[in-house]
Amino acid sequence: MEISSMTVKGKGSASAPPDAIAISLQLEGIKDTYELAMQHAALELEQVRETLLPLGFSKKEIRSTHFSIDSAYEHRNDFRGENKRYFLGYRYRNDLKIIFENDSKRLGEILWALSTCEASPEFSVYFFLQNRQAVEQALLEDAVRDAKGKAQILAAAGGVMLGKILSIDYDWGEIEVRSRVYAASAKMAYDSTPMIDLEPEDISNSDTVTVVWEILNPKMA
Question: What residue ranges carry the coiled-coil annotation (predicted)?
């Protein structure tokens, strides 16, 4: 016997305050030779480490996410007006990351320290969720409740009753767990406010589930 069914999509949302902070740092420059590029990359890395060490970050906690040294060129016109490619030197780039618990006071201290670092790194601040399980659970529960509410309205309007759930489909995609709220350069004025009080918004997410219900004829129920 064929089972009648109803398919409804439910949308859920959930939010939570961030529980961790990540600072991404970028060290970059161009030097005449490969050896000089390597030396300056190593020097600037050590300067960042010396800056962050008094703030409780060991060498292992200052993680490198990308490092490269490549030939650098630029295009410009020569004396005849012809566009040519000119060798500038060797460009090095070292991307670093530090992670710590959400603490606005400590964040202010770290940003101030980075603003005075001799390496002059560019940096961005991200607030994110390390414990994402609770948000994912709340999101799914809300999505299923939304689907159920819609299904009940449709069933009542159609003069039928909902039976058991036949299936629930969810794509299990990655939820967004971070928000970029601040980007700056260590070349900022040294007389700027040393303690930056950043209060990030809660991190919000939404997603959908597809629920299939069995439909019961009210006369047979």
Answer: none
